[in-house]
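Q: Hi! New to this. If I give you a protein sequence and the SMILES for zinc ion, can you show me the bound structure?
A: Yes, paste them in.
Q: Okay, here:
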Amino acid sequence: MESKLAFLIIALTCFCFASPPAAVAQSAKERKFAVHLMNRIQGPSFAQSREYCGYMVQLPSGKITTGTINPGTRDGCSPTRPENGQVLSSFHTHGGFTEEHYSEIPSVQDMRGDAREGIGGWLATPGGRLWFIDGPNNIARQICGIGCLKQDPIFRPGAQGKVADVYTMDKLIAVMGPE
Ligand SMILES: [Zn+2]
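A: Thanks. Here is the predicted structure of the protein with zinc ion bound:
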């Protein structure tokens, strides 16, 4: 009896600890759409030195599209929640290249925003990197590196130091501070 109870407790404990938040799905179709979309908005983003942002949605037909694409400022952008379709993820660009901004990696605010909404987030950088932020798990992965998307002609590699392939929230805070 005792051993059975102990087994049950161990089984329950293991079950609880083995259930981190499910990673947000990121289908090949969504990724392909993200690359196409980002390449369309990188040009205006560099030319106007401002971010562009929005949400990617899936319509009942299965088609992936975006809600409104909003222009932002040099270092911020407020996306409009779409009225139609199921929200898959957020997306934004990081404007044009500057020497002083940490624009090649997601910001702490970027990750907090996607985490709050429980969604994924796509980010395009001036260097042409594509990131996917897994909001629920507070982790960002570089999907493809320098020059994989359109790149700002004035981009200078290494201006903000070494860029890793993966950042957790703690690592982002260590690099950029809490805000
Ligand atoms: Zn950002």
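A: Residues 28-47 form the longest helix (20 residues). Let me know if you'd like me to explain how to read the tokens.
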